[in-house]
Amino acid sequence: MIEIIESVCETYNPRLHILGVFPTKFFVLSRANTEALQYLRANTNVHVFDAVLPRDVRAEEAPSHGLPVVVYAPDSRAARAFEKLTTEVLMLCGD
Questions:
Q1: What is the CATH number of domain 2-93?
Q2: Which string of DSSP letters, residue by residue, matches 21-80?
Q3: 11-52 confidence digits (pLDDT tens)
Q4: What's the pTM value of the predicted model, to 2 decimals?
Q5: What is the CA 74 to chain-centroid distance, rounded?
Q6: CA–CA distance from 83 to each of 20, 30, 90 (Å)?
Q7: How far apart are CA 56 and CA 76, in angstroms?
Q8: Residue 48 burial class via C-beta count within 10 angstroms: exposed 0-12, middle 13-18, buried 19 and up
């Protein structure tokens, strides 16, 4: 993933600035998921958002209803993760 980001920046747009990586479909009970996230945060120069999108059935259902998850299931774990991501992005961009 890091190599792809670097390649895109070098090849297509050297001025491109990546705000960070938003981990998705994270399964908290998966040791592999947890270890991969820890590794990414500790061993890369890429910012990894604190917000993590968990696996969430409500998020998977939302597109079939033609709605974003924050409208379809505003109290879901996925909706809360997107709200947290939005707050982080706004902070990084200086509102």
A1: 3.40.50.300
A2: B---SB-TT-HHHHHHHHHHHHH-SS-B-S---B--HHHHHGGGGTS-HHHH-TTSHHHH
A3: 998 888 888 899 999 998 899 999 999 998 998 888 999 999
A4: 0.82
A5: 18
A6: 16, 24, 11
A7: 8
A8: middle
